[in-house]
Amino acid sequence: MSKTAVRGEPLTCSVCARTFSRHEHLQRHSRTHTKEKPYICPCGRSFSRKDLLTRHERLSHPNAKPPDSHHQRKCYFDAHRRQCESNPSVLRLLVVEGQKNTATSQDLAVNPVPPSTIADPVNSAADLLIPSDDALFSGFDDPFLDFTNFMSADELGIDWDALMKDDAPMQLPLSNDNNTDVHQSNPERSDLSSRVPDDYSGDDDFRELKPFKCPWLMPEPDRLRFIGALSPFGEVIPTFVLPTRLSLARYTEGYVDGFRNHHPFVHIPTLNVLSYTRSPELALAFLAIGAQYRYETKTATSLYQASRSIVLERLRRGDLFLPRGASDEAQNDSAIDESSTDYMHRIQALLLLSWYCSWQNTPTLTQECFEYQGLIARSMRQIGIVDVPVVDANSWTEWVRVETDRRTKFFGWCLLNIQSFAYDTPPLLLSRELSLHLPSSCKEWVARDETEWLSVRARFPSPITFKQAYSSHLTTVNSVDPPSEVSPMGNYILIHALLQRIYLTQQLAADGPSENIVQNNIYEIERALNRWRHTWRTSSESMLDLQNSYGSLSFTSTALLAAAHIRLHYNLGPWRDLQSSDPAIVATTLREAPLPQRGSHLIYALLHSVHALNIPSQLGISYLSRCTSFSWSIHHALCGLECAAFLSKWLRAVAISQQGSPLSALESRVIRWITRVVREALLSQNETLHLGQQIDRSSMVGGTQLTNQLGYAIVKIWAQMFKSCNSPWPVFGLIGQSLHRYAELIENDVSLPEEC
């Protein structure tokens, strides 16, 4: 064992300061910086390691003659000289390594090793440029040779060098039929070292069968480059360590699998982490989202905190917002302003950070999400909530830039809306501030290249403006038809606009204006919701499939439609207190909410609330919650809470007033449908089977006992669904636990027989 290894003196890379215990390891690592590929095949391909060249020759040239050793050395020298002439940094790196070799060789004199592994103690620049034959082949990266140097032959009494020689094939005893050597009879024995995965070369896969596909794997030089982009913020993230390449690939895949379908504003076909080196907080933010979708919550928190620290540092330096007047100059200039792109990336980072901390079920993070709201609103107003000018309408790259800008602004507005809906706070951006065209179709957005984009684009009409579509829904003129072809994201945006209008109407009613004004607004919004439903049904990309991620926005929009019908006539916003992050507080607040007034005006709210439960009950609630709820949007949890509380409150109101005010024919039909849906849902969960049997017995009697039990059962079904779901967002658990506590509170109001 060398004296260097005994004393534990590391060898340090002169570029990245990484340390190594062996010189050959340092040599191999240095080639990742110099991009040196000294091992050249006669076919023209070159490699950074000899074992890679050997593998290439075995796979691509199985019948070729073994290359002459003199030819190998000449190829190495030629490649070595070309590398040094074209890149002076290579020469500097080699000179530094040569100086370190001098010290190392003096240490090795105490414990002699074969001469082929000792560098010349008097190295000059010329010696480094023209190495000797022994020096050329002293650092072959064979893990078996490393093992022989680690285990001394004297200790085991084995001649390792003799065993590991492969200069000539080992001869087998001659048979009567042939004279075949080992390499011909058993090709699996040849060059086993090339099969060992090597992180230094960027090859982490064992390719014995077929390579494992990892589409988002980042080369190590790219990872080092991104680490360099973080260096200007080293003071605010001193302990942050960027995850490994495989981890980064896993988190990117998590973002793509779990988040992008619900919120498609980052263009995945052109996604490249290195494009965010000028705004590294954006890359860290979407990696935090991806880590959350891979259930690696501690890493997700680390990535989130690092991104947040960079955002706060930019805020302190004054470069978080676009300078005054810069947005007008960018809009008047036809050329793409790189600084405007950087500011758009910073807005995207704010959006992802705000989304991440909004649903963590932690009071501290919930308060941080409110801090981001003001930053988002200010940034978007400064950059302008308008379409950016188009330079070349037939360029895919230009279209991606414009569409990404448009979708980012819409997502920022929708994010502030959903936070307003969840936490009952005023929206910071109003719909009248949006001067944008609606997003293009999904198929155009997911096109993988320009050819596919051009082909798809010809089949879809150009999107209309948001204000045109919104006004067509609100118009009182019957001759004006609502748009018949809107993308899923366009419909999602329009239902958000109607939800915001409902919130403002509710605030207007709370101020006590004329009852006619409020009733006229309610009638107007109800008609707009019907027109929105028509647009959703006639749009070619709309679908209602829980198991199809491509249609996730369409399904999410229908959940928001149910919430809109409920909020229009029964405002549960002040009666939830999700900001507390405490299930007991949420449940108690829900119980204190007043009962809705019975009447035909609630029919759409009732039908959509039952339908929201009917869809998962048909497919099996236990199966969906455990196997497919990973892909559910946050909207499903918020709207599920709304539907469960509203239905239970309405059924309680019916039970209380049923004797004095008999059920109408419409109410009777609704209760019969609720009974069928609830029975099916109870049967699809082991935890609620006994409730299904009680509902069967009560349905024969009807009356108050049935309606009370239905209200209790609905809350239990939704509670169990969210408690057992595998969503990575903790807010699902908060809502599940809150509904469970709420069911316990209303259980005293329901006369339940003993469990069978």
UniProtKB/TrEMBL annotation:
Region (Disordered): 171-200
UniProt-annotated location(s): Nucleus
Keyword check for Nucleus: yes
C2H2-type domain sequence ranges: 11-38, 39-66
PROSITE patterns: ZINC_FINGER_C2H2_1 (PS00028), ZINC_FINGER_C2H2_2 (PS50157)
GO cellular component terms given for this protein: chromatin; nucleus
Protein's UniProt keywords contain Metal-binding: yes
Top-level taxon of the source organism: Eukaryota
InterPro entries attached to this UniProt entry: VerF-like, XnlR_reg_dom, Znf_C2H2_sf, Znf_C2H2_type
SMART domains linked: ZnF_C2H2 (SM00355)
GO annotation, biological process: DNA-templated transcription
Feature: compositional bias, Basic and acidic residues: 186-198
Protein's recorded name: C2H2-type domain-containing protein
Primary residence: nucleus
Gene Ontology molecular function terms on file: DNA-binding transcription factor activity, RNA polymerase II-specific; RNA polymerase II cis-regulatory region sequence-specific DNA binding; zinc ion binding
PANTHER family: C2H2-TYPE DOMAIN-CONTAINING PROTEIN (PTHR40626:SF10), MIP31509P (PTHR40626)
Polar residues composition bias: residue spans: 173-185
Keywords associated with the record: Metal-binding, Nucleus, Repeat, Zinc, Zinc-finger
